[in-house]
Amino acid sequence: MALLEWNDSLKVNVAVIDRQHQRLVQMINDLNDAMRKGKGKDALGKILDEMVRYAMTHFSTEETYFDRYQYPETAPHKAEHAAFVSKVKQFKADYEKNRVGLTIELMNFLSDWLVKHIKGTDKKYGPFFNEKGLQ
Length: 135
Description:
Blueprint lengths: L14 H22 L3 H30 L4 H23 L5 H30 L4
Helix pairs in contact: 1-2, 1-4, 2-3, 2-4, 3-4
């Protein structure tokens, strides 16, 4: 059973970015499923590796559009991206040190990021990009 369901409240109405956000929702659900089965720690390394790849790809996509279309909120948005990358790197380092409680902490972080960043910060650029012809 999925913890989070993809729905219109998560859409920014830019197809490539919405697909990438759907992947983040899936990663959260994968981690939640593993935790429910008592295998959260086993899944954690894979999820962290995916998060690193996700961040590189997804943030590059968004930031390319920011630069191309001169999005006025570029600087603070990029700062949020940098903070996310830093936090994921810290999770990865903690995982490699076998820190206890990391799975739940990562789940909370990702769920919080989904709500605050996608539903808040990312939602702001959807209409801007749509006006520029990006769908």
